[in-house]
Amino acid sequence: MLCAVQFDMEGTLIKVMKPQSFPSGFVKREFVVRTDEMYPQEIVFQLFKDKISLIDEFEMNEQLKVSFNIRGSQWEGRFFTNLQVCSNIHSPLDRGDGPQTLLPSRFADQEL
After folding, report:
1. pTM of the model
2. Separation of alpha carbons 105 and 55, rounded Å
3. Residue 75 to residue 32: CA distance in whole angstroms
4. Per residue in 37-51, pLDDT tens?
């Protein structure tokens, strides 16, 4: 899924949760990024389906730039808002060979 409206946020990776599977076959994984500002915020992002391994490349306390979209839904009278990673997570820091970009497998063979 490509994002219709995409947002970017930079911060420090502080927690990666284990994948969660549901009886319907749905799989999700969450991770937390702390913003680098005067009053830091700890923001939870969600990865779904085939994207749950995108975060595995990174270590705790590593700087990240996350591209995400805002998704809203309603279930049984309750409303939910999710920050869903849409296309990539990368390090804004130079790792020697330039920033690393992680893309879903459908983009793996395409040049950026």
Report:
1. 0.73
2. 14
3. 24
4. 999 999 999 998 888
